[in-house]
Design a protein that fits this description.
Order of helices and strands: HEHEHHEHEHH
Radius of gyration: 16 Å
Structural class: alpha/beta
Number of strands: 4
Helix content: 40-55%
Shape: globular
InterPro entries: Cell_Envelope_Assoc (IPR051599), DUF218 (IPR003848), Rossmann-like_a/b/a_fold (IPR014729)
Number of helices: 7
Largest sheet: 4 strands, parallel
Distance between the termini: 43 Å
Strand order of the largest sheet: 2-1-3-4
Pfam families: DUF218
Protein name: YdcF family protein
């Protein structure tokens, strides 16, 4: 019998779209290389002109946590998510001229809203964009980037990290903790932002 609770949570958290031609690819902060590798692949295939990695040091830590996978390939003296993601992009064939990095944010909300400030300051027009992120982070990323860029049409192109997927998250304690943590944050972390966004969108 299908478990309705698992199905509903899975469908909500694990947003996934097919990549389409876009103006930019956004990369929320993180220390796992897989999202940036996939973003580089999409860039090489001509999906976007700009890549916008974001992230400083997590507000929960006093220093950058270190590379979470493939440290034999990505072994720089990284001081932020942005430095790390930028190195991954460059090592995978993305020219530095296509990368617009934001290195001050300490959480996902700042990833989105500080990227907005950076894009506006550089006068870059974005009508369509891809978000490449960890699969279990997809819903929260979409919500926050959509609030920061209400005029942009987004597609979310997630990748599996830490072996947590839509099909298996409920089978391990790590998967359950990650996904239910995302579910909680989507509900209470930015109530004010969501309320303002919803009321503005119905004006």
């Amino acid at each position: 019998m299908e478990n309705r609770i698992i199905t509903d949570i899975s469908n909500y958290i694990f947003v996934s779209d097919e990549p389409e031609q876009a103006d930019a690819i956004f990369l929320p902060g993180g220390s796992h290389p897989t999202p940036a590798e996939y973003a580089a692949c999409l860039y090489q295939k001509g999906y976007a002109r700009w890549l916008i990695p974001s992230g400083g040091i997590s507000v929960k830590r006093e220093k950058w946590p270190g590379v979470q996978a493939k440290a034999d390939i990505y072994h720089g003296d990284y001081q932020s998510d942005c430095e790390f993601l930028t190195d991954v992009l460059v090592k995978n064939g993305v020219p530095a001229s296509a990368i617009i990095g934001e290195n001050q944010s300490g959480h996902t909300r700042d990833n989105a809203f500080l990227s907005r400030k950076l894009v506006d300051a550089k006068g870059i027009g974005i009508e369509t964009a891809l978000i490449v992120c960890k699969a279990f982070h997809a819903r929260r990323c979409l919500m926050l980037y959509q609030m920061a860029f209400p005029e942009v049409t987004f597609k979310v192109c997630p990748v599996s990290c830490y072996n947590i997927t839509k099909d298996n998250w409920f089978k391990t304690e790590q998967g359950v903790d990650r996904v239910l943590g995302e579910l909680t944050r989507c509900g209470n972390q930015f109530v004010g932002d969501i309320k303002a966004y919803l009321l503005k969108s119905t004006d």
